[in-house]
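Quick one, tokens below. Sequence please?
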């Protein structure tokens, strides 16, 4: 049985930070950038033996901070925490030992990391950036 849990949506983080001003003696989340505050909230509320539901946590985070979040999630998961993460981030999709479920063509199924659309689009852009931009931006 989980001893702690947290549901976190990037879109509603501002409301969480505002509530902190009302309930806490020290308001800190509005003093940092959106991404830094979001990451701090996530890190401060992740513990072993917890259940965490994250809805697109990458929305507020740079690629470097996504790697920081990946490390924190991985450490907690190794100690017994469970995560359900809805993401389009090829970085967060790459968490080792994660089961990845795709919602393609009206069915939910397990898929491999390299078979996700997020991975494929990112790989295509990185490996063929100029060709892709020429194709997309030419009238």
């Amino acid at each position: 049985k989980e001893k702690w849990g947290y549901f976190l949506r990037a879109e509603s983080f501002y409301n969480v930070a505002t509530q902190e001003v009302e309930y806490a003696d020290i308001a800190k989340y509005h003093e940092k950038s959106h991404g830094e505050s979001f990451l701090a909230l996530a890190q401060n509320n992740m513990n072993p033996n917890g259940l965490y539901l994250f809805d697109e946590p990458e929305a507020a985070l740079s690629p470097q901070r996504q790697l920081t979040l990946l490390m924190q999630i991985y450490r907690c998961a190794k100690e017994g925490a469970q995560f359900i993460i809805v993401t389009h981030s090829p970085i967060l999709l790459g968490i080792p030992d994660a089961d990845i479920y795709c919602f393609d063509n009206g069915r939910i199924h397990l898929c491999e990391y390299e078979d996700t659309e997020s991975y494929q689009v990112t790989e295509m852009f990185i490996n063929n950036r100029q060709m892709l931009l020429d194709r997309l931006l030419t009238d």
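The chain is about 40% helix and 20% strand. Strands lie at 4-9, 50-55, 82-86, 100-104, 107-111.
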